[in-house]
Structure to design on (368 residues):
């Protein structure tokens, strides 16, 4: 393989990685948006209603009575451990996350199609995703231990993934500049 | 790697733009359906007081129905283009790729149909994107609902396993730079 072939191979590999993690992140941010839309304060779990666990439903869902009751407690845990600012913050952040992820998916197409700003845009989009991860992490740190336990570890994984991708696109960008 | 010397496939071998767009739409939808379904099944069981599942389940069904239409369209287009091809797959990797794609389309179809059948027998109504009512297949039937739920569950697990193979193959082709990846990224 000569230099040009290695560069093309790097771009193909990078585009696949951006696409794969982009699709996973899109699902993650979309689910977070859905979660925040559904679990609002003042809803039935928050008002203290008891779980409605009918025997036929339990059989259908293959659940024990205790699991059924804990499902309500689970919602209550999320609602009571969320500070007032957390829901609007997460709604905004996951919306921004969806937009930034879609942008990064477009840059993957740019890389394969060898469009000139492809790598530059990939750097910008990956940096944006990294910043959004950090913003999510900082927010989660400032909640209680119950939410921290849910959010911090997946966010740390995303931070590491986007850091690796960011370093890779910056390095490829430097090599590309040197070659041209 | 002799193929790497000519990484860009000729224009005639490019996939139709609609197939490329549908492929990525399907990929995004499938990942979202997996992630959201794992979460939504942890929500409290539905009752007069607890309606948490209403939006996620409706959304799941809407995306599933749209996905079914996309899968059928995509499969029809792929079959049409395969029939036009003069060469048959050579080598075990190419044959594995053909089997992988056939299984993917089959499992996607089974997942969508079993989900619809399960929902139909559950007694809950389905309104596509909150606009069009889809008639129920039959009256409520718990046994058939459980049966189709099981089919839905296991076909989805099988689909996830196959997706991992598909993703592995994509990374393999991306690193090998043999032009296979380029086809699914070209919108020309």
């Amino acid at each position: 393989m000569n230099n040009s072939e290695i560069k093309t191979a790097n771009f193909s590999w990078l585009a696949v990685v951006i696409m794969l993690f982009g699709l996973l992140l899109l699902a993650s941010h979309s689910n977070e948006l859905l979660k925040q839309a559904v679990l609002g304060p003042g809803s039935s779990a928050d008002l203290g209603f008891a779980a409605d666990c009918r025997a036929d439903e339990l059989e259908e869902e293959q659940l024990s009575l205790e699991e059924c009751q804990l499902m309500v407690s689970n919602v209550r845990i999320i609602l009571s451990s969320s500070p007032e600012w957390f829901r609007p913050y997460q709604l905004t952040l996951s919306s921004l996350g969806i937009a930034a992820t879609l942008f990064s998916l477009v840059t993957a197409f740019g890389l394969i199609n060898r469009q000139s700003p492809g790598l530059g845009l990939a750097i910008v989009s990956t940096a944006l995703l990294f910043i959004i991860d950090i913003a999510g992490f900082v927010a989660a740190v400032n909640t209680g231990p119950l939410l921290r336990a849910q959010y911090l570890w997946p966010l740390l994984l995303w931070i590491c993934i986007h850091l690796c991708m960011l370093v890779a696109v910056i390095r490829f960008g430097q090599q590309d500049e040197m070659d041209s | 790697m002799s193929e790497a010397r000519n990484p860009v496939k000729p224009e005639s071998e490019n996939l139709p733009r609609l197939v490329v767009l549908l492929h990525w739409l399907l990929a995004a939808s499938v990942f979202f359906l997996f992630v959201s379904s794992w979460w939504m099944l942890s929500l409290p069981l539905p009752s007069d007081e607890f309606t948490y599942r209403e939006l996620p389940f409706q959304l799941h069904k809407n995306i599933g129905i749209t996905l079914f239409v996309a899968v059928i369209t995509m499969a029809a287009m792929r079959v049409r283009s395969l029939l036009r091809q003069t060469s048959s797959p050579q080598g075990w990797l190419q044959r594995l790729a053909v089997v992988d794609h056939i299984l993917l389309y089959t499992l996607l179809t089974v997942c969508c149909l079993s989900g619809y059948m399960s929902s139909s027998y559950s007694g809950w109504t389905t309104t596509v994107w909150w606009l069009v009512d889809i008639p129920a297949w039959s009256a409520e039937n718990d046994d058939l609902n459980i049966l189709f739920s099981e089919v839905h569950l296991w076909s989805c697990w099988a689909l996830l396993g196959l997706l991992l193979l598909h993703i592995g193959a994509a990374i393999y082709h991306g690193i090998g730079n043999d032009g296979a990846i380029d086809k699914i990224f070209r919108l020309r």
Remarks:
- Residues 1-12 of chain B have pLDDT under 50 and may be disordered.
- Residues 125 and 136 of chain B are 7 Å apart (CA to CA).
